[in-house]
Amino acid sequence: MYDLPDLNKFVEVRPGLFRCTIIWRVMPGVEVPVATFLVRGDSLENGSDPAHDWLLIDSGAPAQVDTLLNAIDGLLTHEKDTLRYICITHAHVDHTGAAPALLEKYPGSRVVIHQEEKPFICDGVSHRTCPSDTWTFTLFKHFSHESYVKVPHDRTVTLRDDDKWEFEHVLKFVATTGHTPGSASYIHIPSRSIMVGDALMNIATNPMWSKVPCISGPMALSTCNWGDAMNSISKVLTLKDEVDTVFPAHDYSVDGIHIDKVHEFHKPSL
Ligand SMILES: [Zn+2]
C-alpha cells in the first residue's frame, strides 16, 4: 500500500536535501507517514569523497527511533560526517522521538527549537496546558499523544519569532506558530524548499481508508491556536520569492507541494 521510494531510508528529493518517511501507527487501523529530512552542509575537506556537516529536520516518533537511526547511518557514511543540528518543527511526539538518542550519539550536536516550544521538550510541560481558540483542541487535547522526550537545556539553540538563524547559507529558520505555540519551519535555501512540519499536511482526508494525498491545514484536534495557524500558512505564501516547494511532515506524495498549489488551497487575508 505504501510505495514511497523513501520509505525507511533517505532519498535525495532535491540536491543536498534528503527525505525519509516512516509509517507511524497512531492507533490500530490508523497509520500516518512521518517525514524527516537530512540537509547536507558544506564539504569539510577537499577531495572526491569529502565529509560533511549534516542537519536533521525533526526526529520521528519514539517507536521509529531505530529505523531512523539506521536510515541516518545509511547516509552519513564518511567517518568524519557529523550531525550538527536537530531542527525541530514542533515538540509533538511524532517529531521528537529520536532527539535524545541523536544527542547522545553526536555529542557536538544541538537541538534548534523555538523559545515557545522549549518547555515541551526540555521541562516536561504538556501541550495540554496550552490555551486554545478552538473547541476541538479544548475537547480533544485530553486524548492526544503526550511526548516524553527530555532534552537538556544546554543542548538547545533557542530562537524567537524574528530571529534570523541560518546555517552556512543552506538552512534558515522561520517561525510558523499556531499548530503549537512555537511551531517552526526551515527553508533549504539552495533548493528553494520549505519544511513546514504540521503547518500544512498532504495526506488523505481519511487516512484509514485512503492514501490519496490532499492538501490541508494542520490537524484541528491537535492545533492549539487555529487563527495563528492560518496566519502561518499566509506567512509561508509570502515567502514565494524564496520558496517553490513546500514539504509537510505528513505527506503521501514524493515531491512535496508546489507553492502555487498551497496558494490555491489557502487564499491569504493579508
Ligand atoms: Zn505531526
From TrEMBL:
<dbReference type="GO" id="GO:0046872">
    <property type="term" value="F:metal ion binding"/>
</dbReference>
<dbReference type="InterPro" id="IPR036866">
    <property type="entry name" value="RibonucZ/Hydroxyglut_hydro"/>
</dbReference>
<dbReference type="GO" id="GO:0016787">
    <property type="term" value="F:hydrolase activity"/>
</dbReference>
<protein>
    <recommendedName>
        <fullName>Metallo-beta-lactamase domain-containing protein</fullName>
    </recommendedName>
</protein>
<feature type="domain" description="Metallo-beta-lactamase">
    <location>
        <begin position="33"/>
        <end position="250"/>
    </location>
</feature>
<dbReference type="InterPro" id="IPR051453">
    <property type="entry name" value="MBL_Glyoxalase_II"/>
</dbReference>
<keyword id="KW-0862">Zinc</keyword>
<keyword id="KW-0479">Metal-binding</keyword>
<keyword id="KW-0378">Hydrolase</keyword>
<dbReference type="Pfam" id="PF00753">
    <property type="entry name" value="Lactamase_B"/>
</dbReference>
<dbReference type="InterPro" id="IPR001279">
    <property type="entry name" value="Metallo-B-lactamas"/>
</dbReference>
